[in-house]
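User: Hey, quick favor. My workstation is busy. Could you predict this chain's structure for me?
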Amino acid sequence: MKKDNSLLKTALIGIIGAVIIVAAVVALLVVNKDSNKTAVEPLTKYTVGTDQDENVSDNETANKYLIFEDEQGEKYTLYGEDYMANLAEDRFIIVNGSELSFFAEGEELHLSDNVISCTLSNDGSVAAFVVPTSGDKAYVGTLYTYNTVTGESQKINDNIFVSTSNRIQLSPSGDAVAYTANYDEEELTYDCCIYKDGKEEIFGQNRDILALSDNADYIYYNIEDPDSYSSIFAVYTDKNGEVILSDAFYNRFYLNLDYSECVYYMGKASKDSDEPEALYISRNGSEGELYLENGEDLDVSSLVSHVNSVLNVDSF
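Assistant: No problem, here it is.
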C-alpha cells in the first residue's frame, strides 16, 4: 500500500518557506541597519568664510562669524570660531567657544555645551565629541557620537583622556571611533581604544591613533615614549601586523579615500638644509618607500579644510 506523503510535503514546503521568509527579514534588517550608518544623501554644498565685529572696545571680545554660502549665492551667517567639514562640504560641525552645533541644509542644530574635543566623519554621517565628566579634571570626559542621518546619540565611554596629541578619531563612515582612556597621571600611561560593532577593544598602551579606516582595517598611529617625548609613526593591519614607517615623524601625512594608502614626510635630514622634503608611501599597510623626491609636487588641491588630511583620490 502506497503512503500518502502529500501532508508531509506540504509541511516541508511550509517550513522551508518560513525559513526563507525569516532569512529575508533578517537580511533586510541587516541591510537597513548598515544603510542607516552609510546611506548619506547628497545635500546642499557650501563654501565657508569668516568675519568678526570691528566696533568693539579693548575690554570686549569680538564676536566671530562663519558665513556659509551655497552655489546659488544664498548666505547663512552663524556665530562660530571654527568649523569642520565633511569631504563633500555639505555637512559641518561648528565650534563657538565650548558650544558645538551641526549645520546642514541651512539649519543649525545644537549638539552640546562645554565640549573639549570633537570631530566629524569624512562622509558627515557621524559627529563625535567629548564633554568633561567633572570640573576637577577638564581633560577627562565622556565621549558621545551623534548620527546626523538618524538623529541618534550614543554614549561610548566616560573616562576619555583628551590633550593636544590625544584626540578622538572617526573612520570615514563613522563605523569605528578611536580614543584614549584610563589615563594614569603618575605612570603617564593610557589605553588606546577602538569602538566598533558595539564593542570596545584596547588596541595598545600609549598609542595615539591619527587615523583609522572603516572597520579599522588600517590604523595609523604614533607610538609614544613619555620619557623621551618622542614618537614613532606606524601602521597596523591584520595581514602585516605593526609596521614602523618613521622614527622621526611630525604628523604630516595624507591619505587616499579608503585609507589603504598613506603618503608622509620623514622630515629633513638637517633643519638648515635647503633640500626639499621627500614623500614616502605605505600601500596596504606595507613598509614605506620613496614616493616623491620633492613633496611640494604632490597635488593637494582636493584637500578639504578641517578634515583629516584626505585627498580625493582612490590611489596615489
